[in-house]
């Protein structure tokens, strides 16, 4: 959360002309509900299943594309296996300090300003990103630079 995936994804889409699929946006439209409302009324497991369904639907399309995932996609192994099989997984590695300053007071149900809780979530997620990512970029810099670093690493 707050690493800049959605922001950088849009920059990459403009620069490459690849289509972009924002999973959070697709889920919101399909469920006709906001993400906080889905979490509140249906729970996280339901949301993760919806994420999985959207991934399954888009990854094997033949067009060149960028998937703007939610940061919690790593919580569901089935989703990650599909991504690993089909895609290059990019980790936008961002300090917890920057994440916290970017999204404080935002509309993300799993974000909390409680330092212990968010530090534990951050550390656990970092282990998962480390496990699954093909490429890691420094996301503690301007989004345009993050996008350039990704294109450089992918040689696009
Ligand atoms: N590299 C960056 N530097 C500073 N602010 C950023 C950066 N990337 C994103 N932001 C800002 O942080 C917030 C969260 O960005 P977003 O792209 O939605 O992150 P994510 O999709 O990873 O949760 C937005 O207000 C966005 O404008
Ligand atoms: O980290 C998470 O568990 C989540 C991240 C959010 O997306 P962003 O990473 O774009 O904030 C969104 O999918 C949902 O609030 C859950
Ligand atoms: Mg996002």
TrEMBL record:
EC number: 2.7.1.71
Binding sites annotated in the UniProt record for substrate: 24, 48, 71, 125
Enzyme class, UniProt record, top EC level: transferase
UniProt keyword Metal-binding, yes or no: yes
InterPro entries assigned to the protein according to its UniProt record, in alphabetical order: P-loop_NTPase, Shikimate/glucono_kinase, Shikimate_kinase/TSH1
Any GO CC annotation of this UniProt entry: cytosol
Cofactor: Mg(2+)
Cellular compartments annotated: Cytoplasm
Alphabetic keyword roster: Amino-acid biosynthesis, Aromatic amino acid biosynthesis, ATP-binding, Cytoplasm, Kinase, Magnesium, Metal-binding, Nucleotide-binding, Transferase
UniProt cross-references to CDD domains, sorted A to Z: SK (cd00464)
Highest taxon, organism lineage: Bacteria
Entry binding sites for Mg(2+): 6
UniProt pathway annotation: Metabolic intermediate biosynthesis; chorismate biosynthesis; chorismate from D-erythrose 4-phosphate and phosphoenolpyruvate: step 5/7
GO molecular function, one term: ATP binding
GO term, biological process aspect, one: amino acid biosynthetic process
Catalytic activity: shikimate + ATP = 3-phosphoshikimate + ADP + H(+)
Self-association and partners: Monomer.
Function noted in UniProt: Catalyzes the specific phosphorylation of the 3-hydroxyl group of shikimic acid using ATP as a cosubstrate.
Entry's family note: Belongs to the shikimate kinase family.
The name this protein goes by in its record: Shikimate kinase
Organism of this sequence: Proteinivorax tanatarense
Highest classification ranks of the organism: Bacteria, Bacillati, Bacillota, Clostridia, Eubacteriales
Gene name of the encoded protein: aroK
């Amino acid at each position: 959360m707050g690493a800049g995936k959605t922001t950088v994804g849009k920059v990459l889409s403009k620069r490459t002309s690849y289509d972009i699929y924002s999973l959070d946006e697709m889920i919101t439209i399909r469920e006709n509900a906001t993400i906080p409302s889905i979490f509140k009324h249906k729970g996280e497991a339901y949301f993760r299943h919806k994420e999985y369904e959207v991934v399954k639907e888009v990854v094997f399309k033949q067009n060149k594309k960028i998937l703007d995932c939610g940061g919690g996609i790593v919580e569901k192994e089935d989703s990650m296996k599909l991504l690993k099989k089909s895609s290059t997984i990019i980790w936008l590695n961002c300090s917890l300090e920057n994440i916290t300053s970017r999204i404080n007071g935002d509309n993300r149900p799993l974000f909390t300003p409680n330092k212990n809780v968010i530090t534990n979530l951050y550390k656990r997620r970092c282990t998962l990103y480390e496990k699954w990512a093909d490429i890691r970029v420094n996301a503690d810099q301007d989004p345009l630079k993050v996008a350039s670093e990704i294109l450089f690493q992918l040689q696009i």
